[in-house]
Specification:
By secondary structure, the protein is mostly helical. It has one helix at about 5-60.
Length: about 60
């Protein structure tokens, strides 16, 4: 920013930066929610795989 900017120009720049920050925060929220969905799905898949491995072990012992 140049020191010769008017107050109106500075206020517009602040508004623009706030708007950009809000947009980025919304994107981060969406990414975070998507990541949680993926992590939950991975946990579910891990549990299902553990059950399959356990069943396979039990069937081999028989």
């Amino acid at each position: 920013m140049e020191p010769t900017q008017s107050v109106a120009e500075k206020e517009k720049r602040i508004w623009d930066l706030r708007s950009e920050l809000e947009s980025m925060n919304q994107r981060c929220d969406v990414y975070g929610k998507n990541l949680l969905v993926i992590l939950r799905d991975m946990e579910d898949q891990k549990l299902k795989l553990s059950v399959k491995v356990q069943n396979a072990r039990l069937s081999l012992k028989e």
